[in-house]
């Protein structure tokens, strides 16, 4: 009996050891099977740390972020229409001097050309005559007031002299306004009054600093106010007009930033911003126009307004990236 109990105890002990051994070995066997399956799976690529670093692979946690995506649009570069001036003369005359040529950089107020105008000479002569008449009429009016106060003349005579004075004063003011219309400034009129010297020559000046891109006059030519003599463009800022397909209109918004590349400077990117998106769809091309304003860096040669680039890159402020393909 005692021997049977000992045998039973040994059997229970052996079973417990077997269960423990099976439990301890099962996870290892399962992991080994998983590794074997992963190694044989053709869809899984295993990289060591050095390979991951060499490939530039970065692992980050999943998070909500703004999604950027590229869109390709055609477009062209043109001058800022608010920085273009077609310059003419306010008065007819003959060209007696040309100071600016195509390609010249001019400053605001710089002289582009000079003309001689008989009409300006006549206007200045009439102004000086009316100025003299006004002085005489003013003196007569002041004298009439004193005589009226002393009862030396009647009211009717005083009113007649007052009317003469007011009439001459109105004519003088009209002559002065005509000089303003012809292009004279206050300092020119003050010089005319002080010197009493008629100057029929008029300088045509640049309204702002820029580049002369058009000239339409020659020495000795007779010009009219309707003649366009010069075209000046301020190239410090340009426009890029992109053609946006109808399906992508909702992705283009004002305020988006842009990087423009042109064939003249293939390694450069010019920063800009979308300032206008048209509401009209071209029925022929099914596109709308988007305008991007681009600063023209002074250290680079100015891009001609007719120059078309070959590639651009628009980065949207709302998360989209517009990448227009500029065409030549």
Word description of this protein:
With 328 residues, the protein is an alpha+beta fold. The strands form three sheets. The chain has an eight-stranded mixed β-sheet, with no helix packed on it. A four-stranded antiparallel β-sheet has the order 3-10-8-5, with no helix packed on it. A four-stranded antiparallel β-sheet has the order 7-6-4-9. The N and C termini lie far apart (109 Å). It contains five helices and 16 strands. Helix 3 runs antiparallel to helix 4. The protein is 35% helix and 26% strand. A hairpin with a 2-residue loop joins strand 12 (257-262) and strand 13. Among the domains are: 70-81 and 234-322, Elongation Factor Tu (Ef-tu), domain 3 (Beta Barrel), CATH 2.40.30.170; 118-199, Orthogonal Bundle (Helix Hairpins). Mean pLDDT is 78; it is low at 17-29 and 301-328. The chain has helices at residues 2-40, 49-54, 118-149, 155-181, 186-195; strands spanning 70-71, 75-79, 84-87, 93-98, 105-106, 111-116, 201-205, 210-215, 222-223, 230-233, 237-245, 257-262, 265-277, 287-295, 311-315, 321-322. One of its GO terms (biological process) is copper ion export.
């Amino acid at each position: 009996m005692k021997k049977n109990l000992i045998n039973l105890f040994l059997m229970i002990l052996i079973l417990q050891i077997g269960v423990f051994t099976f439990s301890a070995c099962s996870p290892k066997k399962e992991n080994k099977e998983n590794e074997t399956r992963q190694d044989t799976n053709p869809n899984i690529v295993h990289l060591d740390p050095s390979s991951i670093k060499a490939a530039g692979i970065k692992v980050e946690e999943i998070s909500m972020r703004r999604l950027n995506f590229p869109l390709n649009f055609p477009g062209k570069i043109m001058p800022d229409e608010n920085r273009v001036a077609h310059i003419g003369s306010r008065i007819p005359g003959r060209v007696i001097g040309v100071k600016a040529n195509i390609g010249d950089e001019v400053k605001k107020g710089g002289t582009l050309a000079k003309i001689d105008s008989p009409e300006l000479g006549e206007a200045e002569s009439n102004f000086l005559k009316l100025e003299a008449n006004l002085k005489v009429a003013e003196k007569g009016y002041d004298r009439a007031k004193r005589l009226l106060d002393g009862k030396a003349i009647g009211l009717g005579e005083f009113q007649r002299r007052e009317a003469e004075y007011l009439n001459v004063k109105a004519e003088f003011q009209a002559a002065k306004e005509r000089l303003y219309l012809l292009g004279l400034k206050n300092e020119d009129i003050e010089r005319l009054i002080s010197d009493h010297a008629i100057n029929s020559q008029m300088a045509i000046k640049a309204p702002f600093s820029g580049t002369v891109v058009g000239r339409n006059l020659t020495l000795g030519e007779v010009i009219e106010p309707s003649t366009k003599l010069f075209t000046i463009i301020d190239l410090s800022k340009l426009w890029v007009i992109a053609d946006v397909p109808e399906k992508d209109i909702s992705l283009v918004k004002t305020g988006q930033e842009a990087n423009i590349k042109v064939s003249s400077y293939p390694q450069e990117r010019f920063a800009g911003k979308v300032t206008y998106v048209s509401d009209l769809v071209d029925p022929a091309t099914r596109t709308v126009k988007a305008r991007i304003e681009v600063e023209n860096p002074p250290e680079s040669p100015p891009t001609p307004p007719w120059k078309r680039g070959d590639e651009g890159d628009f980065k949207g402020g709302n998360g989209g990236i517009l990448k227009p393909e500029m065409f030549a």
